[in-house]
Amino acid sequence: MLDFPRWKYALILVVVLLSALYAAPNLFQKDPSVQVTKNRPAAVVDEALVERVRSILDEAGVAGGEISLEGEQVLVRLPDATTQTRAADALRPALGEEYSAALNLVPTTPAWLESFGARPMSLGLDLQGGVHFMMQVDQKAALEKRVDAYADAIRAALREARIGYTGAERRPDDSVLVTLTGGADVDAARTAIATALAGVGTSTAMGTGGPLIEVDGSRIHVRLSEGELNRIATDAIEQNRNVIANRINAIGVAEPVLQRQGEDRLVIQLPGLQDTAEAKRLIGATATLEFRAVTGDESQAAAALADNNVPAGSRIYRDQNGQPLLLSRRLLVSGDELVNAQPQTDPQTGLPAVSITLNAAGGQRMLDHTLENVGNRLGIVYVERIPTVTVVDGEEVRSARTVERVISSSTIRGVFGKDFQTTGLSREEAAALAKQLKAGALAAPMDFVEENVIGPTLGAENVSRGTRAVMYAFVFTLVFFALYYRMFGLITCVALLLNLLMVVAVMSLFGATMTLPGFAGLALSIGMSVDANVLINERIREELRAGLPPRTAIASGYDKASGTIFDSNMTALLAGIALYAFGTGPLRGFAVTMVIGILTSVFTAVTVSRGVATLIYGGRRKLKSIAI
Predict the structure, then answer these.
(1) DSSP secondary structure string, 234-277?
(2) How far apart are CA 272 and CA 620, in angstroms?
(3) Are 600 and 524 in contact (CB under 8 A)?
(4) Which of 399, 397, 418, 422 has the alpha carbon at shortest distance from 409?
(5) How far is Cα 57 from Cα 63, in angstroms, rounded to an integer?
(6) What does the alpha-carbon distance between residue 45 and residue 428 come to, in Å, rounded to a whole number?
(7) pLDDT digits (tens, 9 = 90+) for 425-484
(8) 3-state secondary structure of 314
(9) What is the β-pairing status of strands 122-123 and 513-514?
(10) What is the spatial distance between Cα 123 and Cα 130, in angstroms, rounded to a whole number?
(11) Transmembrane ranges (predicted)?
């Protein structure tokens, strides 16, 4: 008996309306734009900045831009990509380091659609282009950081072994020179140093790949071998790659590309990104914290500056007010030993704070230090590396300057280990620092050496060709079904059109990225949807040949074909899930579209087409034949 519950009609109607709603934003094109945001907490984004941006663009002869203040950013909408590039080139040097001018593509989706959470489907770099970054690792800084770690480990090992020494400092040639006191056991010192170096991650303590330890009287010279230098450089680029991957995941970019290029560069491609300025800040940020013991108060630091006589093992730092303070050169805990960081409010003072969790090694050192230094002061240094660009003889010269300031130098009131909190930041700084620390610490500073928007022309051509291929597949399929299955062919056409609408809506709703391989997955899902409808139509024909009445044949055809359709699509669905789980890049783009297409095709073939068939033939009591 041909029957279809009314609640299923209601379900189909809801699905059609929701699919149309969430697919509609894809009809609206994105505007090329330049997004101006502040780099420093002290910078102000207001109407005065809007007027400043407008005057800069007028002086540069960039016309046609619509400038508006939207929240914490100034948005300059431009007519094309060429004008967008000219505007960014004019704004960056004029605005200076306080502001960031980043390329962007801004959706033009109407506000009423956005109020429902509807947004356009993201397109991959091969379809719409996107943001392309190239970053270079400062390998010299990575080397200096590792050698400083060796020097710290050596000093700690000698103290623990009760071996007297007068110095253990990094030399300009990136070696460590240890000077022992008179009468110190040189062999014991050499053994302690070798053991300490093995504990900080060298290849081997005394082997061919590790540091070379040379003894010259009371002096011990620790040199890095060529193999160790290469390993440090490789470790730095790989650690930075992993950290940046975590930071990209924090942004929420679909199908990013992160590849190593050469010995010290990383290529980052972010398709379909809405906020490139935030991405640039988060990816390139090198702000971190350093914990150092306070070795002299403000008056002692001022006296040391006046006499130009800084005590050995100490260094002058300045706080937020510019007041000097003496801190130990020995780094107690660094940013790469931070496990987690969360912004919060100090329950006692009500001031912004960052709750910090260290790893086991850092927590143990903090515990050991606080056990011996209750009542003494602990300094927390905020370190930020700011990339700078200057033009020399018509060419850009990129460099960076490091800003260090003491954000806290409070007295240690009690013993603590891996869990504690730090204050001294504004609420905005606390939130930004927690986000950066949680994403991970870079092994070495990195600079942006290239930034642009990829292939709008090529992307438009790929979109055109991909759309044309899918449309041809649709048209050929619709014509064939209309001629071969007649009325049921038209029913199949309705199901296929709704399937396409649902795929676009689902991908838009969940923020999936459509790539060129995704078009192939979409075409494949169309073919699989066709296959399901062929099974149904041929089954109905078989039931008619067996002598069943038309209404019974339709019902029986759908019932008997449904099991086969579910089984065949389940195997394809498992293959799509495997492609997504184990594939990368283009394979994932193909798998996402294919999996969504399979799920929607089962619904449209089994439920929607049956509902339409019942709507056409279900009310005819004396039905003698059907057009199939």
Answers:
(1) HHHHHHHHHHHHHHHHHHT-SS-EEEEETTTEEEEEEET-S-HH
(2) 51
(3) no
(4) 422
(5) 7
(6) 14
(7) 777 777 766 765 565 567 677 777 777 766 555 566 777 777 787 788 778 878 888 888
(8) strand
(9) parallel
(10) 9
(11) 469-485, 490-510, 589-617
